[in-house]
From TrEMBL:
GO terms for cellular component: endoplasmic reticulum membrane. Keywords: Heme, Iron, Lipid-binding, Membrane, Metal-binding, Monooxygenase, Oxidoreductase, Signal, Steroid-binding, Steroidogenesis. Heme binds at C396. It is an enzyme of class 1 (oxidoreductase). This is Steroid 21-hydroxylase. It is found in: Endoplasmic reticulum membrane. InterPro entries: Cyt_P450, Cyt_P450_CS, Cyt_P450_E_grp-I, Cyt_P450_sf. Pfam families: p450 (PF00067). Belongs to the cytochrome P450 family. One of its GO terms (molecular function) is steroid binding.
Length: 455
């Protein structure tokens, strides 16, 4: 982004790669020099970047009603059927119904999460085992299984065949990657360029088409099925499940709700799992302690075991603190005049919560740049300062699912395998550019070990 400082200290131009993890950290360094809320001008709009937990909470929790909007954009509108989705849409009656229906359907599905995650986790471990001890890049495997978890939750036994689902999860990954490309992003900033041919944009539209065809086919399969599986998220959204809230969504809203759950829940959770594995490769002794903790619990870890496996839980929290998969959350937009950190704010201002910086605030965390799960075992940990899922009215509706999934999948992996670096050595930990903060590609060896309790 091309930036001009607009904090009254004279104009100064600069560039910033917002989709690069270093971009978020650079923003926080600027913020530390210029106060907890950085004020910028970007693409003709005022942009505020709060980088402390206090200012993020002030905006999104205390003044949540002021910041409920999302900024509109050319690309956002192309990929979201004109903003009819949950994540990119602004508050209107259709959006409120969609949000209530999705949150209600996810809460209802929570009851069958344990068995579903065990089944998916077992399949994940089987796939990892099928590679023997040959080096493998785990990211694609993780992405397929997080995508498959969402598919099982949405469609129950009517899940599409694995080949179709694998192609779909690949399509989602590519879609986010192409959308984040600077040659495509520039179309949001410079409208004149929209008149010129743009191969990146053509690819993006092809991927959106693939995504929509897949989702539409699943909805139709469900609608024509004489006895659709009970208790699926899609069933609840269609109003099939007795007593469920939901139903009454317009076809585009229903379609986009499913898209949001897939996009929101696939790459983010896979990225967090990838980071956890990367950090554990750097800390073999922590792996051994985690395995010992898992051996002390009967049977495979379930979502209900979080209290009994504190080190596993702490490892996940620390991974989400140090490398939040959505480091700049999603942008918010002020619906009316308001204020932040003592600064007056006009309606239409964009807010970019810098979660990455807030979670590495040296005033809150000791050695903030070090991976130290043990900090979450000590009494008085500032857990309220952990915001990887955002906060307030637009916080992530998939938080419970993501936390349970990370807990069960990582627990099962550590119970079954010892993680060892592949031929390229230890993975880098600085992150690679993209809409989701991912670990740079690496390969590792998964060495099977005897699961506790097996003969
Ligand atoms: C580790 C995994 C995940 C992380 C770190 C994460 C993080 C986030 C963050 C930071 C936001 C933006 C909050 C804001 O606007 O301030 C968000 C929004 C959202 N997430 Fe997640 N998420 C994860 C998993 C999931 C899952 C599993 C789902 C779905 C099942 C999901 C669905 C969504 C949706 C639909 C929104 C938009 C909410 C709205 O605009 O009101 N996410 N997520």
């Amino acid at each position: 982004a091309l930036l001009r400082r607009s904090d009254g200290r004279g104009p100064r131009w600069g560039t910033l790669h917002l989709l690069h993890p270093q971009g978020a950290l650079h923003l926080s360094r600027l913020a530390r020099r210029h106060g907890p809320v950085l004020r910028l001008r970007m693409g003709g709009r005022d942009v505020l970047v709060p980088s402390s937990v206090g200012t993020i909470r002030e905006a999104l929790v205390r003044h949540w009603g002021d910041w409920l909007g999302r900024p509109t954009s050319y690309l956002g509108s192309l990929v979201s059927r004109g903003g009819r989705d949950l994540a990119l849409g602004g508050p209107c009656p259709g959006w409120r119904r969609q949000r209530g229906a999705v949150r209600g359907a996810l809460a209802r599905a929570g009851g069958r999460l344990g068995p579903l995650l065990w089944l998916q986790g077992r399949e994940l471990c089987e796939e990892l085992r099928s590679h023997g001890e040959a080096p493998l890049d785990p990211f694609e495997v993780f992405t397929f299984h997080t995508c498959s978890t969402i598919a099982r939750l949405l469609f129950g036994d009517l899940v599409p065949p694995p080949r179709e689902l694998r192609a779909f999860s690949h399509c989602l990954g590519e879609l986010l990657q192409v959308w984040g490309c600077s040659s495509v992003q520039v179309l949001d900033l410079l409208p004149l360029l929209r008149a010129l041919p743009n191969p990146g944009l053509r690819k993006l539209l092809r991927l959106v088409q693939h995504r929509d065809t897949f989702v539409e086919a699943q909805i139709q399969r469900h609608q024509v099925c004489p006895s659709p599986p009970p208790d699926t998220v899609l069933g609840t959204l269609l109003g099939h499940n007795f007593g469920a809230r939901g139903g009454g969504l317009s076809p585009p809203r229903l379609h986009m709700a499913l898209v949001d759950l897939f996009i929101g829940g696939t790459e983010t959770t896979a990225a967090a799992l990838g980071w956890a594995v990367a950090f554990l490769l750097h800390r073999p002794e922590l792996q051994a302690r985690l395995r010992a903790e898992l051996e002390g619990v009967q049977g495979p870890p379930g979502p209900g075991d979080m209290g009994r496996l504190p080190l596993l839980q702490a490892t996940i929290s620390e991974t989400l603190r140090l490398r939040p998969p959505a480091p700049l959350a999603l942008p918010h937009c002020a619906l009316r005049h308001t204020s932040l950190g003592g600064l007056p704010v006009v309606a239409g201002t964009v807010l970019v919560p810098n979660l990455l910086a807030a979670q590495q605030d040296p005033d809150i965390w000791q050695h903030p740049e070090v991976f130290l799960p043990e900090r979450f075992l000590a009494p008085g940990t500032p857990s309220r300062s952990l915001l990887p899922f955002g906060c307030g009215a637009r916080s992530c509706p998939g938080e419970g699912l993501a936390r349970a999934e990370l807990f069960v999948f990582l627990g099962l992996i550590l119970r079954e395998f010892r993680l060892e670096p592949g031929p390229g050595g230890l993975p880098g930990l600085r992150g690679s550019p993209g809409t989701v903060l991912r670990c740079p590609p690496f390969r590792l060896r998964m060495v099977p070990c005897q699961p506790p309790g097996s003969p």
